[in-house]
Amino acid sequence: MNNLRSGVIKSNRIVFPDGIRAGYLLVQGGKISGFHTHFSGDCIDYSEQIIMPGFVDIHVHGWGRGSFAYKGNNASLKWMSHDLVKAGVTAYLPTSGTMPNAFLEASLAAAADYIASATPADGAEAIGIHMEGPYISEKHLGMQRADCLQRPSIEGFEHFNRLAGQNIRLMTLAPELAGALELIRHLRAQGITASAGHTDATFAEISAAIEAGLSHFTHAYSGMRGFHHRELGVVGALMYYQDTYAEVAKQSGITIKPEAFDLLYRLKRDRRLVLMSDCMGYVDFPEGYEFYHYLRKETFRIKQGQLEIATDGGDTRQVCPCDYEAVQQLEMNFLDS
């Protein structure tokens, strides 16, 4: 179906905003052009399959057998596209991390090359780049690197965007940093979304950033100053300003409690709450890489080309990058954390 340019698709379960219907989808020029309950003629029969819009993941560092944030090469993006589409993702923003500058520059250039050369046969479409950092706060690093932080600047961003082939679509930054407001205004003028994330901003600082053009919040609740009734912080601001967008991910109750998710959904509703995965593509991390996952209480390391996962209790298991089913199961498990 990914390569279908024109034709008719039949299904008994086609998902629409108001429910599920049986019928026929007309496709012209690679786009859905109509729906009919009856049709006579040739069609592609997916009667027992569910037909629904593909997921667009705007915050994904890696998936399956590819990790753009940690390998930053053409191969990592090829594997991400190839594996993401199998999970229902049809388009995505490969997301960088706060990494050494030379690596970041090379990865942006690799992404520009991949975006320019990829075809529908490659799988999910990389439709731009999400830069998470390096303009973030050291007080809310999460898994980002303190030794790779940079000061926000228009000149620095334009340098990155030139390397990226003008493909940066979303920038996560800390609005309280010196130079951030000027950069936010510049991003808005360029049609690029500015998002608050890994930030210790006050409510007043977020308010000023929204006036400058900020419209988005990265992984709501996580990596940001929390809510207090006398200082609403970033969390209070993303709730108060209902026209802004808020990302959430991994809704099993581990990262965000269901009640906290429900509060945010009541305020944002369907049009302002943005689901994303924030997945990493662990099996494609560089050889020797090791980190401790504080939520899962597990240590991850790349050892002799395989991902080794050791629990605090001493149990160890290995995942081979060549075993697609094992890799996919690993990634799906991380959607629950």
Automatic annotation (TrEMBL):
<keyword id="KW-0119">Carbohydrate metabolism</keyword>
<comment type="similarity">
    <text>Belongs to the metallo-dependent hydrolases superfamily. NagA family.</text>
</comment>
<dbReference type="GO" id="GO:0008448">
    <property type="term" value="F:N-acetylglucosamine-6-phosphate deacetylase activity"/>
</dbReference>
<feature type="domain" description="Amidohydrolase-related">
    <location>
        <begin position="50"/>
        <end position="287"/>
    </location>
</feature>
<feature type="binding site">
    <location>
        <position position="219"/>
    </location>
    <ligand>
        <name>Zn(2+)</name>
    </ligand>
</feature>
<dbReference type="InterPro" id="IPR032466">
    <property type="entry name" value="Metal_Hydrolase"/>
</dbReference>
<dbReference type="InterPro" id="IPR003764">
    <property type="entry name" value="GlcNAc_6-P_deAcase"/>
</dbReference>
<keyword id="KW-0378">Hydrolase</keyword>
<protein>
    <recommendedName>
        <fullName>N-acetylglucosamine-6-phosphate deacetylase</fullName>
        <ecNumber>3.5.1.25</ecNumber>
    </recommendedName>
</protein>
<feature type="active site" description="Proton donor/acceptor">
    <location>
        <position position="278"/>
    </location>
</feature>
<feature type="binding site">
    <location>
        <position position="132"/>
    </location>
    <ligand>
        <name>Zn(2+)</name>
    </ligand>
</feature>
<dbReference type="InterPro" id="IPR011059">
    <property type="entry name" value="Metal-dep_hydrolase_composite"/>
</dbReference>
<dbReference type="Pfam" id="PF01979">
    <property type="entry name" value="Amidohydro_1"/>
</dbReference>
<feature type="binding site">
    <location>
        <position position="198"/>
    </location>
    <ligand>
        <name>Zn(2+)</name>
    </ligand>
</feature>
<dbReference type="GO" id="GO:0046872">
    <property type="term" value="F:metal ion binding"/>
</dbReference>
<dbReference type="InterPro" id="IPR006680">
    <property type="entry name" value="Amidohydro-rel"/>
</dbReference>
<dbReference type="GO" id="GO:0006046">
    <property type="term" value="P:N-acetylglucosamine catabolic process"/>
</dbReference>
<keyword id="KW-0479">Metal-binding</keyword>
